[in-house]
Amino acid sequence: MTTAFWIISAVTLLGAVLAVTLRNLVHCVLALILFFLGIAGHYFLLRADFLGVVQILIYIGAVAVLILFAIMLTRNVTGTEGPREVFGLKWWSGAATAAIIGALVLAAIRRDELSKLPTSTQANSSVLEIGKLLVTDWVVPFEAMAVLLTAALIGAVVIALEEVLRRR
Amino acid sequence: MSITLGHYLALAAMLFTIGLAGALTRKNAIIVLVAIEIMFNAAILNLVAFWHFKVFTTLTAQMFAMFSIAIAAAESAIGLALVIAIYRHYRSVDVDEMKTLQG
Amino acid sequence: METIYQLLQTWLPNLPEPIMRLISFAVPILFVISVFPGIFAYTTLIERKALGRIQNRLGPNRVGRWGLLQPIADGMKLLTKEDIVPRKADKFTHFLAPVIAVIPSVMLFAVLPVGSGLIPVNLNIGILFVFAISTGSVLALFMGGWASRNKFSLLGAMRAVAQVVSYEVPMVLAALVVVMATGSLSLLTIAQAQSGGFLNISNWFVFQPWGFVGFVLFMIGAMAESARTPFDIPEAESEIIAGYHTEYSGFKFALFQLGEYLASIALAGVTVTMFLGGYNGPGSHLPYVGWLISMGWFFSKMMGVIFIVIWIRGTWPRVRVDQLMSFAWKMLLPMSIINIFAAALYHFMPSKFLAWVVTAVGLLICWWGLAKLNSDGEIKKRTYRYAN
Amino acid sequence: MEHAEYLQQLASQQWLIPLIPLVAAGIQALLKQRSRKLSATLTISAMALACLLALRAFFATLGGDHGDHHEVGRAFYNFTWFAFGTTKLELGFILDPLTAGMATMVTFVGLMIFINATGYMHDDVNFTRFFCFLSLFAASMLGMIISNNLLLLFMCWELVGLCSYLLIGFWYYKPSAAAAMKKAFITTRIGDVGFFIGILMLYHQTGTLNLYTADGTGALQQADKLATLAGWWGLSMAGTIALMLFIGAMGKSAQFPLHVWLPDAMEGPTPVSALIHAATMVAAGVFMVGRMFPVFTAGAGDWVMDFVMWVGCITAVFSATIAVAQFDIKRVLAYSTCSQLGFMVMALGAGGLSAGQFHLLTHAFFKALLFLASGCVIIGTHHEQDMRKMGGLRKYMPITFVCYVLGTLALAGFPLTAGFFSKDEVLLVTYHHNKLAWGLATFAAFLTAFYMTRQIFMVFFGKWRGGEAAHGHAHAKHDDHGHGHGGHVPHEVPWNMTGPIAILSVFAVLMGWLGTPWLGDNFFHHYLAPSEPAPHHSNLVLWLSIGVGLFGIFLGWFFYGRRPMEHATDADPLQAKLGALFTWLNRKWFIDEIYEATIIRWTMALGVLFRLVDKLVVDGLLHAIAWITWGISWFTRQVGDELIINGGFDAGCEGVRGYAKILAKLQSGRVQNYFRILCLGTAILLVVYFIK
After folding, report:
1. How many separate domains does chain A show?
2. Are residues A72 and A38 both part of a single domain?
3. What is d(CA D355, CA D524) in angstroms, rounded to the nearest whole number?
4. Can chain C be said to touch chain B, i.e. do they have 3 or more Cβ pairs within 8 angstroms?
5. Is A126 near chain D, with CB under 8 Å?
6. A57 and A2 belong to one structural domain
7. Which of A90, D22, D107, D219 is most buried, with most CB under 10 Å away?
8. Could you list the residue range(s) of the whole structural domain that residue A62 is in?
């Protein structure tokens, strides 16, 4: 587990860093996919197989593809951004803010007792159990989620189609 | 050295910071969305780690993670639809140019 | 994998632990990467032969007896061809795409139960794994098409992405009825659930009304997913040259072909496992030889499915892009949702015979109704605006 | 079943009453624009159902023996809404006479208004939206009535405000309607600030938002404790809270000086006006004061109650004088509502809970009647609202005319009608409390009778003055198209508009017997507030109120009925015909002639004197009354209302805009900037947290 953790973490971090720094939008998304894969790997490592698969299915199969589509539909087919943004005040202030927050959260984690928990870990979670919980204890959020997703689907179609419909 | 919860929390914090930095510095709306997805995932990773290291004994954490994933999916769908709509209107996805609401 | 490990432990207990682990890993991997590419190679031959016969010609017959060495010749030719990369291409992505195209396809075989008790990895979320992995192939297509910097490639890539994403939905929903019936996501459990009955045949899910509908839907979905004719618009040569692999040649082209065919074969295997009883058949549970017989059944069924796919390719015209999309969203998706209801109905009706009849009739009516709703009315003689 | 238990059970089902209209509103929100029948059916049937439930609750509170003990039958049902940590937020429903009476009134009057609205809104495109809002309006008002909790009450209170905003501005494409909706919303919001402060103070002091609880720790049950604490401005805590709550009520119930929105609210469709003026919006404030009455009485030692009473009194007189000089049929009614609300508030301030609430109930019936009838008139005359352009409608719209007259009599306090009893009660309570306020209120009652009679005569008597200018044109049109609409001649409205007003007029006449002191016990008083001592009967008050009522009616006839206006362009008799009036008065009294004919010679000097008396005293008195009334109304409207209050509001709005422009610079419109600032704030907070 230890070795796997370090390798996957490195991959995940690499993916994340590349996703927010690369100049080419499509490359960004490909790096994002790498990041998603890393997260999925972490889920497998954490014995949450179902979530890992869901992560791949939804994030790589749907979200990443969606983002790619968005890039293509904004007519920026080659994915290249304009001239490099100047590292101005905005950039530095943003990065510094993020860095401060990150440093403080890390410090908090170091300080916290919780993070030194013994490594007693969960056994693999069964899909059956998750499924049963979903339709018993969590049925209301589950249904709400179904409605939300439907609404989001319709909403996304409406927003994206608005101009097309108006043109007709 | 064995892996503890702290490792995962630190990893998630780093990922979150990266995402935050991306959301704060990049100008392209799509990349901002990408950065937001990264932050989402970092948070969800925390939840799963909490479950794995038995901070929560029930499957609640996994449920939360699953719902978060679903919400993130919905959010990205809507977000990207908005980006496309904005692009159609302004011919740009630069977040700095979306300033119609200024006072 | 675990089975091999246990076998090793009983037969060769003196072997050191890491080596035992290594062998138990290596055997299934070797099996997968040796057997299935072999099948791929000869599938191409069979396809060319069958297409030839369908089109009233002979097909390859020059290299070796009946053209049996043709795949090897093809492989050598592709390997020795010049690898051309367009100057404007995004080099790294262009290189990565064919590699990524193969990986998910190979990974799919990891969860296929190829015989009684013979499964490389018995994942308890097998079906989900299949779907999750098969979405990965989309990326390869997109990357290849986008990196080529060629508008036909890009069009092909976008078509591929749209198509795969669309057909995945009815495909997953079609598979859901099997999950409902067995209460498990593991492909091994699903295969086991179809054993027994008359000659190990009568319990196949395809013989239930919902199972048959699911089978048809899944087959269609799988064909679209692996971009087989009539759903091969991503590489429709009459419109966009060769789609996303227009700019590929040599070994990279071969890898794309390999990935595509492997995915097709793997999905055929999944179809067999889920609806056609998997490895079950007469004699598949005999002691000592059962594993061999079951393996035989599995592979013969799989080849049967592949042959059907080839057959369809040889006889059906290619659909149009808009037809393709509306078929997925307006026909397959509602039908698969109705099918889920039918399966639930079947499950909860006390008399199985009655349930069979009721669900069969209900599904037929729904199919007919949906077809009616989706039809553009009567097909009339085509009128031309300018030509007359 | 034990009666208390039954009440308890009903109380726990009270939520059904607002829920039904709410669900109806929710369904209608999803309906298509053209499903008008379905929409109307839904609204009306939901309201009818709610009315039945309210009636059930009402009869339940009637039953059971209160015996002699001075406690009303009251049941409540509290439950936890949500909890964070140990803090629980509770909500609750109540069933007591106040609730039951109000709920019955609101549902019944609302039902009548809804039925009428199907006729009034018949030609409107947004029929469905209108009925959706109406349902929501009724639902929120009912929710307010049944709530045993200030939180729920406040939520519904705000919902009522929202709905009135939506409905006043229903024809939002008219600039005046859009302005009126904003005005109503903002003005009531100013009052709501006070209300909210009051709620917070009450919560702070009592630790609960529940009005009544089973263990006696409800906010109202602790009112006596509050009276012992010191509050602001030298008031006790109870007084301070009561003052704050009353500011809320002032906004909602259109008390001076926050009344400005009410006349403008006429821009909405007439059924909305009826609803706002009778059943829902303005009743909310009075109802709230009635609901929180223990807090008010607990602070009785302070000047709060007097303040309430004087605000009511000033409003009553002030609005009544304005109403005299109005020409818009709905505006007269609007000012009259203002004035009547003043009466209610005054009664409450004088300590007469039952009197105030009784007047609220009776007023709801006859004011709804008057508004609906005026709606009928408006429809019947093809959307004409100017009374000068009406006249003679008695012949064209007989049913409406009869109902209108009955409503007017009730409002004017004609003996034995509903308004007579309730107004008498109000005056009686005030008489025992403060003689000056009583005197002013009696004057207002006189004016009420006067302007209502004026309205009747202007609208229904005389000859039809509408369409005079456009007559020829209309005639030509008539010939061209041949549509049988009869040009601009008014017509009677369909049964779904006259039916409700007919029913309401029955109540307007007969309702008063519920609260008459003549039939043994005063039923309503005993029902609502048995612990409150009944005011002593006073013949002076009774006869004086009858007298001023009749005198007002007489004067109205005197000025308007005797010689109705001939043309729409004629000046108001009271305003311009004073010269003619003068001579007529001379000839009527015949003082000079009689004296000269009989006691010709030796009374010559006396005759001169009589003439002087006649001119200066008698004529002068009558003229003075007329002039003063008119002058006051003009002055209060032009200076008090338009200049100071309206102008003050406008100036305030401008100031806010000016400062907002500076602040708006901060709003760059760039999302990322906001996000950056947000994150920077988070970072600073985290740093602070770590350093600490």
Report:
1. 2
2. yes
3. 9
4. no
5. no
6. yes
7. D107
8. 1-80
On whether both A2 and A45 belong to a single domain, the answer is: yes
The CA distance from D534 to D165, in Å, is 39
**D81 φ/ψ angles, rounded to the nearest 5 degrees:** -80, -65
- Geometric angle at alpha carbon D19, from D15 and D21, rounded to 5°: 140
Amino acid identity, residue D581?
L
Same domain, A94 and A74: no
Residues A10 and A71 in one domain: yes
Query: Rounded CA gap, D42 and D127, in Å?
Result: 13
Report yes or no on chains B and D touching (3+ CB pairs under 8 A): yes
Q: How far does B101 lie from chain A, in Å, by closest CA?
A: 19
Quick: pLDDT tens for D187-246.
788 788 888 888 888 888 887 788 887 777 777 777 777 777 776 776 777 788 888 888
Q: Supply the ipTM of this predicted assembly.
A: 0.70
Quick check: A69 and C158 CB within 8 A?
A: yes
- Tell me, yes or no, whether A25 and A99 share the same domain: no
Are A99 and A28 members of one domain?
no
Q: Are D464 and D391 in contact (CB under 8 A)?
A: yes
B31 touches chain A (CB under 8 A): yes
Per-residue pLDDT of chain C (388 residues; tens, 9 = 90+): 566 667 767 777 677 777 777 777 788 788 888 888 788 888 888 888 888 888 888 888 888 777 788 888 888 888 888 877 888 777 888 888 888 888 888 888 888 888 776 777 777 788 888 888 888 788 888 888 888 888 888 888 888 888 888 888 888 888 888 888 888 888 888 888 888 777 777 788 888 888 888 899 999 888 888 877 788 777 777 777 777 777 788 888 888 888 888 888 888 888 988 888 888 878 777 777 777 888 888 888 888 998 898 888 888 888 887 788 888 888 888 888 888 888 888 888 887 788 888 888 888 888 888 888 877 767 777 777 776 5
Q: Which residues of B touch D663 (CB under 8 A)?
A: 103
CA distance to partner chain A, nearest, from residue C306 (Å): 26
For residues C260 and C256, what is the distance between their CA atoms, to the nearest angstrom?
6
Cβ of C165 under 8 Å from any chain A Cβ? yes
- Phi-psi region for residue C300, left (φ > 0), alpha (ψ -120 to 50) or beta? alpha
Q: In terms of domains, do A9 and A71 share one? A: yes
A156 falls within a domain? no
Residue A64 falls inside a structural domain? yes
Q: Give which of D659, D661, D671 to mutate to test B binding, by max B Cβ within 10 Å.
A: D671
Distance CA C107, CA C28 (A): 12
In a domain, A137, yes or no: no
Residue among C90, C124, C135 minimizing CB distance to A57: C135
Strands D87-95, D75-84: pairing kind: antiparallel
Given an 8 Å threshold on Cβ–Cβ distance, is B103 in contact with D667?
A: yes
- Residue D672: list chain B partners with CB under 8 A: 23-24, 27, 32, 95-96
- CB of C133 less than 8 A from some CB of A: yes
The answer to whether the pTM exceeds 0.90 is no
> Which CATH topology does B5-97 take?
Helix Hairpins (1.10.287)
